[in-house]
Structure formats: C-alpha cells, structure tokens
Amino acid sequence: MVKNALILGANGSIAKIVVKQLLPQIGGQITNLTLLVRHPERLADLDLSNPNVHVVQADVTDTKQLARIMTGQSLVYANLYGANLGAQAQSVVAAMCQSHVTRLVWISANGVYGEIPGAYGRWNQAMLGDTLTAYADATKVVEASQLDYTLIRPAWFQDEDEIDYELTVKGQPFKGTEVSRKSVAALVVKLIDQPDQMIGDSVGISKPNTDGPAPRWYR
C-alpha cells in the first residue's frame, strides 16, 4: 500500500471510480490522496470532505509546478487524454525524476503496438486515428523512462456494474473488444494497494469472451 498517492486527470471517468474506492482508506492505509485537475468543478459529484484529500488545480505540462506537487508522493496514477499526450508524458516523467518519485501507473489504449489482430484491429485503428497515435507517443515516452511504470491498455469502455477482466501482456495479441470502467478501476486500485506488482509491464485489459470485429454496440 502506498502512503501518498497523486492522481493526474482525476476528473476522468476511470479516475473517479478509483477515487470513490480509495476514499474509505484515506487517513488509514493511505495517508494522503492528491487529485490534480484543470477544472476542479468537475469533481463536484465526489465527497472530498476528508482533510487528507487535496484538490490541486494545475496543468501537467507545467513541469516545474508538477514536480512541486509530486514531492513526497509515493505513486502517481495518470489518467490523461489529448492530442498532446506525448508532451504530457514527457512532462510527467521529467517531474517525477525531479521529485524522486518512481512508481507510475499510466492509462494507455489498446492498439498502441499494433497488437490487435484481424477485423477489430483494423476497426480500432480507423476509429481512434490520431488519438491512437497520441497514446502511442505517450507509451513510448513512459517505456523509455527509468521509472517503475505499469502501462494499462484497455479495450473500449462500457458501464456495466461488473468487475470481470482478463489481461494480456506486451508481445501477446490483444483479446476482446470491451471492458467495464469498473474493471479498469479495480486493476488500478489493486496496483495502488500492491505497488510492487506489475512493475515494467504493459498489460492489455478486456472482458473475457468479447472477441469480434468491434464492440457489440457497434456491430
């Protein structure tokens, strides 16, 4: 279990589920939880009254400010998005090195290695386009770092109330086409609870038995 955790992009759909699951542990197993966002009002639906939960408004591309925020953190979980995701990753890695924080959990995307076979791989590439390129750029930055990282490559998100997933590792063909947000959040929480697990791994995550040419709601 980490003592101090920092979530980048804390208003993201996965990150919010992670926060809700971590809140009962704050002040106990987790000493402090820091939530970094550009728009704090987007966290209004969360109960953040715990004094050990800290909301910080910042942009991850401001490396100097980010390094100050990271000082004293035990783990960084990045749930970021955008056309400049590669630049965001460069700033995060640089800030972690400056602040001597080594453990990083980074949400990437399925398909960043061209690891999806067949029709679904072609569909995923066509649907994501430049977004997939941005995720791939960030993935390269994280993998080239000296950090203790875990990359998570989810299939397409759905909102079923379930935790049901299987993992593939880098070098294996990606399985499945969809995964619940709760499943991805459960994996992130597991890594926060057990930060010595999956270091240096890039894992694909999907719901078992969902293979096909596209997620079922697109067929």
Measured on Cα atoms, how large is the radius of gyration? 17 Å
The average pLDDT value, as a whole number, equals: 96
The CATH architecture: 3-Layer(aba) Sandwich
> What's the SSE pattern?
EHEEHEHEHHEEEEHE
Number of helices: 6
Domains counted in the coordinates: how many?
A: 1
Characterize the structure shown.
α3 links the parallel β4 (75-78) and β5 (103-107). It is globular, with a radius of gyration of 17 Å. The protein has helices at 13-22, 63-70, 85-99, 118-128, 130-144, 181-193, and strands at residues 4-8, 32-37, 53-57, 75-78, 103-107, 148-154, 156-158, 166-169, 178-180, 201-206. The longest helix has 15 residues, at 85-99. It has one domain (4-218): NAD(P)-binding Rossmann-like Domain (Rossmann fold), CATH 3.40.50. The termini are far apart. Helices cover 33% and strands 22% of the residues. It is α/β, with parallel strands linked by helices. The model has no long low-confidence stretch (mean pLDDT 96). The strands form 2 sheets. An 8-stranded mixed beta sheet has the order 3-2-1-4-5-6-10-8, sandwiched between helices. Strands 7-9 form a two-stranded parallel sheet. The relative contact order is 0.15. It contains 6 helices and 10 strands, in the order βαββαβαβααββββαβ. α1 (13-22) packs across α6.
